[in-house]
Design a protein that fits this description.
The protein is mainly alpha-helical. Helices cover 46% and strands 8% of the residues. It has 6 helices and 3 strands; from the N terminus they run ααβαβααβα. Helix 4 crosses helix 5. The protein is elongated. It starts with 6 loop residues before the first helix and ends with a helix.
């Protein structure tokens, strides 16, 4: 028998704090908190901040002054994107933050209409 710890055990030990941070909650659906979803704190959310975990409190402090994207929150907190998404879902359920879904990509425009507008502008103002 070898008394040295196995390498596989060392790799999994880093995941335990992340599980604790999220209280064992699972990831929300992918479309719930995309990287570009904007998040901001609700009014009066700072009064409930002392009841949060240190990581959730840090996220709340970041979004107090305005909107930040989920990716920006993850970058500032140095937490994995999945953990940030779980924390945001928990805080939104508690009424502490609001999430604004990203603006959907524009639909394809009618090229004929754009050409007609361009021709009209050229005729009106010369080109």
């Amino acid at each position: 028998m070898n008394d040295e710890p196995e390498e596989g055990l060392e790799l999994t030990s880093a995941l335990v704090p992340l599980f604790v941070i999220t209280n064992g909650h699972a990831l929300p659906p992918d479309n719930a908190y995309e990287r570009t979803t904007l998040v901001s704190a609700q009014e009066g959310a700072s009064t409930s901040a002392r009841m949060l975990s240190p990581e959730a409190r840090q996220v709340l402090e970041l979004v107090m002054d305005g909107f930040l994207s989920v990716a920006e929150v993850a970058a500032h907190t140095h937490l994995p994107l999945g953990v940030v998404r779980i924390l945001l879902a928990q805080m939104e359920d508690s009424g502490l933050v609001i999430a604004r879904k990203p603006v959907p990509r524009a639909e394809r425009v009618d090229r004929e209409l754009l050409n007609a507008v361009l021709d009209g502008l050229k005729a009106r103002f010369g080109a």
